[in-house]
Amino acid sequence: MPEITEAELKKQIEKSSFSRLYLLHGEEKYLIDFYAKKLTAKAGGKVFPDFNLQQFDDTASIDEIASAVEALPFMAECKCVAVSDLNVESLRAQEAAKLEELVKNIPDSTVLVIYLPSIEIDYKVNKKWKKFIGLANEAGVTVQIKKRSNPDLEKALCSAAGKRGCELSRQNAGRIVRYCGNSMQTLFNELEKLCAYVKEGEITAQTIDQLVVKNLEARVYDLSKAIVSGDYDRAYRVLDLLFQQNEEPVSVLAVLSSAYIDMYRVRMSVQGGFGATEPAKYFDYARKEFRLTNAERDGARLTTYMLRQSLRALLQADTALKGARGDRRIVMEKLIAELLLIAEKERTA
Asked: Is the distance from CB of 81 to CB of 54 less than 8 angstroms?
């Protein structure tokens, strides 16, 4: 059978019309775990769940999984065997052959659910996973669960807040997404905290700013905005906070460099007669096109020369950090000073 969509998976779960095999994989780990729980609960049934629902993690051998799959259900039409994070890539040849044989011969009385709530797959280069996904499509169905777009995440947060007796506007839902990124697990954890604090009524922007923990990208974005606007005090406050939270200087520098690279790409695109989102055709901005529109806005006050000088300073700091020359904090503080001075010289020229 071919790969199916999430909508088709929902229908199969609702109607208890199961395939013999499910492989749930993809980027959105929260939903992979969510659908796996729904699927296993329904396929395992309510009759003697201790016998008819068997669950394994990545430590289980193929022989153990096979024994469970081949066992008959107890006083029920079917049973369910669930395996989380089965790492096909790490299997030796003998184990891989056993798994292939198992997948090809799943009894009609068993629903085997293999789901990957932690494992990331490089679909372009990983031949073992590519082969297994093809095999799974022949024996059952696969569902690739991708990251949600920002509008979809905002809608989901508003809906979830309403179910908890709270009100959340789309604008403030977008604020949470900007602070936390697009991981649904992180977003819903933060929403639970906000709803517990508010209890009922509106979740305001002030409450979000007070309670939501910003991810590294959001905090470094605040740093870049402070630098570009020439706000010395704020820039160093944000940098100090990043060090207090034990963020790796190399990681901070990588995100900060990305912000400047975004601004430079947009500048070159606009100067070449194209739109701000043109770089998305050539670089990896899938579901992150907002970075380019933000870069167009933030870089509007900066000249092309200033951007080039800033990129040179970022490269020098990267070399210093990776070469372990000097105190890492001093390297970062010196970089912020250089970036601020470059921006200030441009404004006063």
From this structure: yes
Domain 216-348 fold: Zinc Finger, Delta Prime; domain 3 (1.20.272)
CATH superfamily membership of 6-145: P-loop containing nucleotide triphosphate hydrolases (3.40.50.300)
**Residue ranges of the chain with pLDDT lower than 70?**
1, 287, 324-326, 346-349
| The model's pTM | 0.71
Where in the chain are the domains? 6-145, 150-211, 216-348
Q: In this predicted structure, what is the pLDDT of residue 283?
A: 87
CA distance 266 to 269: 5
Residues 6+ apart with CB under 8 A from 96: 88, 128
- How far is CA 82 from each of CA 50, 105, 120, rounded to the nearest angstrom? 13, 16, 18
Helices (H), 229-349: 232-244, 249-271, 290-298, 304-322, 328-348
